[in-house]
Write a structure and sequence with these properties.
The chain is an alpha/beta fold and about 400 residues long. It is built from 15 helices and eleven strands.
């Protein structure tokens, strides 16, 4: 079950995970909320995988943590997600499901936990983000057979929710190390995006969410342009379903106010990110609050791109500062600018960092490693079912 806000890292990760599923042992049936999610998975997996678009209510980002906020949140969860549970239950009955995998977390897939409970089948959660610490989420967490947090930081968050480590297996997001091998497309991608062929380019990839920090990136690039003649910026990503709809316009206005509008390209949503990455010289991840993992960081590292990222959450588990990338304080546009410009002006440094980054990804975050861990969890959870099943 995939009920994410839109097309993002969790959908990409799901496609990669399913590629590593041994089909002589497991037969996947996928339920998604959006046609774009289905299309991406079909592109990755082929038409032999059954993928249904089910009219589910979209997830809602809870606001606040006080008593009244939690109470309102519980009512909102019930209103939005119990119908989702009925939809997932119908799909699970049709496909005679033995296990339900929720591909985001409890707050986004409340109805899926309920469906698994009603059917008496085990439920596994791939935890792609931090959970909302409400009473109802804590209660539902006790119903989960195993959590698959995508970083140690997310695992610590689950511990604060009351989940013990013996019900978790950390499975960092799977990175396809070979996906960005098309470096020969660098010139073609630059032409397609309207970038000068030899311009130093810094890019930020991610959904247009305020906490992702695209505004911090633009502030940094205003300083970079003053140090690096011809420098350009690219912002790749679409708007999430629960996002502030005015944020993209704010970013364009900010670029104009900073005097760099002619140096900034907004691509909108792209589903071919690995193909784009070799066209950039530096990749930036400027989240202003902890990022659960940041899959595009690993993708950029696999493409041998030096990454400058906020030192909060999952990025610090991927990057060794100064060795396989750079970490700076969240929200510090000046620090981002210095690292971006220094890397653009020192090709030898960029090459060294990029080479080490790719080695790290191949050793720690490969598709094969992720598949082995996930498939083992499935086997263990299914083996523990009551014999009556």
């Amino acid at each position: 079950m995939e009920n994410a806000f839109g097309f993002g890292g969790s959908v990409v990760a799901l496609g990669r995970q399913l590629r590593g599923l041994p089909r002589d042992e497991f037969e996947p049936r996928v339920v998604v909320r959006m046609e774009a999610q289905k299309q991406h998975l079909l592109d990755v997996l082929g038409t032999d995988t059954r993928i249904d678009v089910v009219p589910m209510q979209p997830p809602r980002t809870p606001r606040g943590r006080g008593f009244l906020s939690r109470a309102r949140g519980a009512v909102e969860h019930a209103r939005r997600h119990l119908p989702n549970g009925s939809a997932v239950r119908r799909a699970a009955i049709e496909h005679r499901a033995d296990l339900i995998h929720l591909n985001n977390g409890i707050a986004a897939n409340y109805g899926g936990v309920v469906a698994a409970r009603r059917l008496g089948v085990p439920c596994v959660v791939k935890q792609h983000g931090y959970e909302w610490p409400s009473a109802d989420v804590r209660m539902l967490a006790r119903r989960i057979a195993c959590f698959l947090p995508d970083s140690e930081d997310v695992a610590r968050d689950l511990e604060r929710l009351g989940v013990s480590r013996d019900r978790m297996v950390v499975t960092w997001c799977p990175i396809d190390v070979s996906a960005s091998e098309g470096a020969g497309e660098r010139a073609a991608v630059r032409r397609e995006l309207g970038l000068p062929p030899d311009a130093p380019v810094a890019a930020m990839v991610g959904m247009l969410l305020r906490w992702k920090g695209q505004h911090v990136f633009l502030d940094a690039m205003a300083s970079v342009v003053r140090r690096v003649p011809g420098a350009h910026a690219v912002i790749v990503g679409g708007l999430a379903s629960d996002a502030d709809p005015g944020y993209p316009d704010e970013l364009r206005a900010q670029a104009a106010r900073l005097g760099i509008a002619d140096r900034v390209i907004f691509t909108g949503l792209r589903t071919d990110v690995p193909r784009l990455l070799p066209a950039f010289d530096v990749c930036v991840h400027a989240s202003t609050r902890p990022e659960p993992f940041g899959m595009v960081i690993g993708e950029a590292m696999a493409a041998r791109r030096p990454v400058v990222a906020s030192e909060a959450g999952g990025p610090a588990e991927q990057i060794e500062n100064g060795v396989s990338g750079f970490l700076v304080a969240p929200g510090d546009a000046g620090a981002f600018a210095a690292r971006i410009a220094d890397t653009m002006l020192d090709p030898a440094l960029a090459q060294s960092i990029g080479a080490r980054a790719r080695t790290v990804v191949a050793e720690r975050f490969s598709l094969e490693r992720h598949a082995a861990l996930t498939n083992d969890v499935y086997r263990r959870v299914l083996a523990a079912r009551p014999s009556s099943r």
